[in-house]
Amino acid sequence: MAYEIGLSTPTVPNRGFTLWIWSVVLVIMAGFFVLGRLVIRFHNRRIGADDWVILASLIASVLLTVTECSAVHYGYGKRLKDIALNDRAKALKWFYGAQIVYKVVITVNKISFLCLYLRIFIQPVFRRVCYGGIAFLSAWGLAYILVTIFQCTPVNAYWDKTIINKTCVDSKAQWLSYAVINIVCDVAILTLPVYPVSQLHLARGKKIALAVMFGLGTFVCITSIIRTTTLAESANNKRKDPTSGPIPATIWSVIEANVGIICACLPVYHQPLKWCLPRLFGSQHSAHPSTSRSRGRGQKTPGSSRSLQDRKDMAWRELHGSGGIYSNNVSTQGFEMCDVESRKTEMNEIVRMTDVSVSYQDDQRSDASSRPIRGRAED
């Protein structure tokens, strides 16, 4: 039997090719985004739990593509009457597996977002909320995976239509209840970082840029909502034709799963975006372009090539030597940066003073308490 990708014939309509092409193209795109994310993290030597979680999600998405394409190969997308008798059970069995794997992908996607938040934000309350969210998502995902596995009694009654004495749950109720909770979770995850981002000591433009990076999860919400609008009709059509009726909802399930992976990877691409859009994502120096333009021709401000991080490190060493721990996390309990520019009229040159406030923890102290230290570096 030749491999089928769901192409229609003049006598047999087939909706499977649309599902096949969406599944293959999107999983390849998601794979490139995850690969790029891992390359960036390995290059920076900052691989973390969130990266492994999104890799697990990609592996599950590949498995989802395999199950969907295998279902199409055996006739999923055709009308049931147009499928050979020995292929009907195979098509439905692969689609049954795809429903289970889909829920795994969606659950792991959402957990990867929360793991990324845990990596970025340090507020204790926010972190407790994230841990609680991970616990809820794990329980919710497991519950619906079990419901999907045991949606028919006996289990093989889902794909074996010759079984007469069987009991199956209402697909419409199951799909819609899952979709509603899914959307609520998407909105909650999307809005979680709003408060901690608003507390960061950054310029307004950079706050907006950071909010946009996290707000890319909006696309996941949109695909979830669109998928939900197709569920009722697909569930009704499934009763009439279990191999052709659910195709629209199946396609949107594939889109939602892979778009979720892509959106979870985008915040990691902050550094490439910083190179492309330096004014929006750049360092503190880019926030004051007028300063560099105000220098006279042929004049060079002492230390102008030194970065803001160099100035912070210099102030740290002058105040504390090499001991202690320097925290580079930006938060209400971290450090605040403000540039104070003054003009030395006698020397006719510009001097930039950077006031750096850091949180210092001395390893030599038995109580390991923290005390605020302020230093000033001069260019």
Automatic annotation (TrEMBL):
The chain crosses the membrane at residues 20-40, 52-74, 94-117, 129-150, 175-196, 208-229, 249-269. It is a multi-pass membrane protein. Keywords: Membrane, Transmembrane, Transmembrane helix. The keyword Transport does not apply. Residues 287-311, 355-379 are annotated as: Disordered. One of its GO terms (cellular component) is membrane. InterPro entries: Rhodopsin_dom_fungi (IPR049326), SAT4-like (IPR052337). Coiled coil: none annotated. It comes from the Eukaryota. Residues 37-274 form the Rhodopsin domain. Belongs to the SAT4 family. This is Rhodopsin domain-containing protein.
